[in-house]
Amino acid sequence: MAPPSSPTSRTIAVSDLMHSGVISCPPETPFREVASLMAENTAHCVVVDGLARGPHHSGHLVWGTVSDVELMRAVASGRLDGAAGEAAIGELVTVNPDESIERAAQIMGEQDCSHLIVVAPDSGKPQGVISSLDIARGVAWGSRK
Predict the structure, then answer these.
(1) Are 53 and 61 in contact (CB under 8 A)?
(2) pLDDT in tens, 91-117
């Protein structure tokens, strides 16, 4: 006899739990404005749009993120006069909306992060965010948010 179905035994897609849309800002946005964006939107990360990258990115503009952790580091070090582009971490850690929450959790564990930017499969552009709490909700409730 098969074990009873549990939330993790059936596939829940990232698209079932993600928050659609992203909160974004240009690289020159001051940390205080980033803090306002986070506070006003109850968000733990902001996408920084249009970061210039070097030759290994073919000179293309790419996205990065400023998380609540980067903001806390700026507060603690008295660097609130800095800008989002200075704190934006590497390239976005992303997931496609059709991936399972198990795969999203695996990526978060491998990348040591608590948020993934959900990207459109056809364009690679950010279309939403999924957090570790969203995945916890999916595991606990086994349903949409």
Answers:
(1) yes
(2) 678 999 999 999 999 999 999 888 899
The bridge status of strand 24-25 relative to strand 45-52 is parallel
* Token pair of 60 as six digits: 């293309």
DSSP string covering 16-78, please?
Answer: HHPEES--EE-TT-BHHHHHHHHHHHT-SEEEEEEEE--GGGTT-EEEEEEEHHHHHHHHHTT
User: Which tokens in the block code for residue 53?
Assistant: 């990258």
pLDDT tens across 44-64, in order? 889 988 776 544 444 455 778
For 130, the 3-state DSSP assignment is strand
88 and 51 Cβ atoms separated by less than 8 Å: yes
Token digits for 24? 């974004």
CA dihedral 123, 92, 65, 72 (to 10 degrees): 160
In terms of Cα–Cα distance, which of 35, 8, 4, 43 is closest to 131? 43
Q: Which of 16-25, 36-45, 58-67 bottoms out in mean pLDDT, i.e. has the lowest?
A: 58-67
Q: CA triplet 109, 115, 117: central angle to 5 degrees?
A: 115
